[in-house]
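USER: If only I could read backbone structure tokens as easily as an amino acid sequence. It would mean a lot if you studied the pair and described how this chain folds. Here is the record:
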Amino acid sequence: MKSSNSPILAPSILAADHAELCRGLQAVAEAHNSWVHLDIMDGHFVPNLSFGPGTVQALRQRDGQLFFDTHLMLSRPDQYIEAFTDAGSQQITIHIEPEYDVAGTLRDIKQRGLKCGLALNPGTEAAAVKDLLPLVDLVLVMTVWPGFGGQSFIEDTLPKMQQLSQWRTEKNYHFRLEVDGGINLETGRRCFEAGADTFVAGTAFFKADDSDAFRREFESF
């Protein structure tokens, strides 16, 4: 069931050259994207470390136009909402899997004037977030296990997108349905057909011969 939301590509800065993150951010902007995706990893909830609020703030100072879509892959995201808000995030997505006050954290994000999102790992059923859907602006379906870029798309995540899209239609929710992991033009289109409307692409975006054309392909789904 296709979304009524217009498709958006959100290139992941994690796939850029980490010694030249500002150039990566510039490449995202020069390809006329409106969003950039910021993956924050703590080395505990996921087996990798990325960067923290200081880096997000430095990137925000270099670009005031891009929408900062910040994905917290942390065991205790509730402890970092203020820091990432102050750093310039405009949307913060948290995971359902760790043990903390998920609903309270979503409300905290909203009360700070940001959009809030809820993410599910590949092994987490859609039912885990069903009761929280009225609170969110975005649901992120991880289509690989989070931690490292360049992984292959997991086919079994497509029915989850379809279920979330069905609930969105039935309940007249308006959250965006985002996908992240192994996303290229082929897998992105399949996710779009399953109801996704927001596409995180890292490796595929930064390796594209024409990144502006790559964006246009997604936005024409």
